[in-house]
Amino acid sequence: MLKSAFTPIYWVLSPKPKSPKISQHFITNTFSNSTPHVRQNSSSKQNLTITPSSAYIHLPFCRKRCHYCDFPIVALGSASTQTHDDPRVINYIQWLCREINATKVEENLDSETPLQTVFFGGGTPSLVPPSMVSSVLETLKMKFGLSESAEISMEMDPGTFDYRKMQDMMLLGVNRVSLGVQAFQEKLLKSCGRAHGLEEVHEAIDIVKKCGVENWSIDLIASLPHQTSDMWEESLRLAIEAQPTHVSVYDLQIEQGTKFGRLYAPGEFPLPSETQSADFYKMASRMLCDASYNHYEISSYCKKGYECRHNFTYWKNKPFYAFGLGSTSFVGGLRFARPRKLNEYMKFVENLENGSVNSSSDDDVNTKDTALDVVMLSLRTARGLDLKRFQESFGSSLVYSLFEVYKPYVESGHMVFLDVQRRAIRIEDINNSLLYDINSERRVAYMRLSDPNGFLLSNELIALAFGVIDSWKDYPSALQEAT
């Protein structure tokens, strides 16, 4: 599957042209499934004691590897759709359940909270038989509890499920589907190495609708090789006509080690230019918003009330469990990446069971990394950065520095400052008192990127915050102030 907002944020595919190295480096090393198998602290103080209420489950099986994919997957074969007796799938599910059972619930966390969201990502989770998905859900329920109203999402590819399988998944509690369409042109699907064709796309959409799945998303990729503006417009139009409650739009990133990485250089023909990629993004924003989809995150659009609850765990930098090959959890202020290769993953699970792997740490939280996390994740959303909460965590001096570095971008139209009522504040009305007067309703309460121009430059603009935070000198006193 594509890097998406319906899989954890550590699989980021930013919907814009490639960005400065500082931003891309941070995104890759903090949130990518290519993260080395090491422990890394990065959390706000409150996250150290919050019990995770979300879990990501990595099901790595695909019929074949797409040309853009650098995820940890297991290719079963182009014809594979029936996997109930495939020993590779059976064995993996057993190891996955063993990992869940062996996971230590930290004693210093708050009282247990049942899981509110579960996300099955991959890979192509819809290749896994419902009976095995049931085993995973039952293991999660026994270990952590599972709310009756939990959002249970699954990535599903056209051609990997039928009406009966969709019904069986729904009976298990799957109530949100992320459908990996990617394009509505046969030519583009083949050139991407997708295992499905256009006929299977329409069949999958028909199945999801006939089964009565209320909450479902269509995933699309922009900036594919040989993709034209007319093709992209057609894909957006057909996606809107299908009437999903959610649409995710991603810009192709050329990754080293993939087939596309060997064939193409970023920014060179037959890939669209950066200008064309920006036009694709603006077209998506315009067409989807005109169709009453709310652009609530850089890559994500939804009908009212259909934001992905699981993804908000990532956007709000809240802790979450993660299980399976290459996945990265965030518990007790710690990001912990599992191995990307099966043999190493199985050894990891064995070590977890015998207590020789410790996924917790007594190290101090890296405050600068925490601030970077919060800024990056917040500015990817339409809500933006809550300055009051940020000041409570990191002190007023850092807030003021961010305020100063972004003031010019309010005038250029890339950044928006908002008051307590989320009304835009004009650049000529902005002064220091609006930042510090906490009793004024007209104080600067939020800063967010504009849509679409600010979102298009998100990596560049977030990199400015990285520079400010990296040169931050008084963070120990700031933390004391916030305590």
Automatic annotation (TrEMBL):
One of its GO terms (molecular function) is 4 iron, 4 sulfur cluster binding. InterPro entries: Coproporphyrinogen-III_oxidase, Elp3/MiaA/NifB-like_rSAM, HemW-like, rSAM, rSAM_horseshoe, rSAM_sf. Signal peptide: none annotated. Pfam families: Radical_SAM. Residues 47-294 form the Radical SAM core domain. One of its GO terms (biological process) is porphyrin-containing compound biosynthetic process. One of its GO terms (cellular component) is cytoplasm. Transmembrane segments: none annotated. Belongs to the anaerobic coproporphyrinogen-III oxidase family. HemW subfamily. May be a heme chaperone, appears to bind heme. Homologous bacterial proteins do not have oxygen-independent coproporphyrinogen-III oxidase activity. Binds 1 [4Fe-4S] cluster. The cluster is coordinated with 3 cysteines and an exchangeable S-adenosyl-L-methionine. This is Radical S-adenosyl methionine domain-containing protein 1, mitochondrial. It comes from Pisum sativum (Garden pea).
